[in-house]
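Box 3.1 — From sequence to structure: Flavin reductase like domain-containing protein
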Amino acid sequence: MFIDLNALAGPARYKLLTAAIVPRPIAWIVSRDARGATNVAPFSFFNLMSGDPPLICVGIGMRDGAPKDTARNIAERGEFTVNLVSTRLAARMNVTAVDFPAGVDESAEAGLVLSPSERIGVPRVMQSPVAFECRVHELLRIDGRSLVVADVVAMHVQDALVADRDHLYLDGPKMDLLARLHNPGWYSRPQPAFQMPQLNLAQWEALKQSGEAAGYLEQSFI
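Predicted structure (token representation):
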């Protein structure tokens, strides 16, 4: 099936792309406007783009033809926090996605505890297993939508999720992080993991020379 995305309307493109590119981690963003009013909202067009320098990217759409509060706040202050969502926080995250009237505090509606950050002036969600303090590196406007590239200047990890402090190992399964699937309202949680060691060139060449390359390609690590 060939699909020409340029021949489709926006909702159809969204439906196809969000069904195919899964799972997507959720950026539960806390932002503040220039007056200090706080906003909390989730976004699934989000991921890590670089480890060194530490960069994340978030795509934020529009509402009623105008930038969403989160996009406007980030543009005004240039900083925000990204809080990851564990499955036990799913309902609270879902409440913060409600289209509340202006002036409603989403964190209060969802029973969130906001804690001050260390390097920026925007708080984080204290219940979140992992939170990132972010400053805008670059803000792009594409057809009215905002593509935010941000520097991660600090992160917070709940102590119980640190498997080895000296080696900076985190307990991924214990985080039980939520990810977005297709619409409407489908999510996933971590499945049993598998390990597949990265091959170097010498190892791959050795597999080819021994005649084992074809067998390697057909094996399943799951």
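Summary of the box: The longest strand covers residues 130-142.
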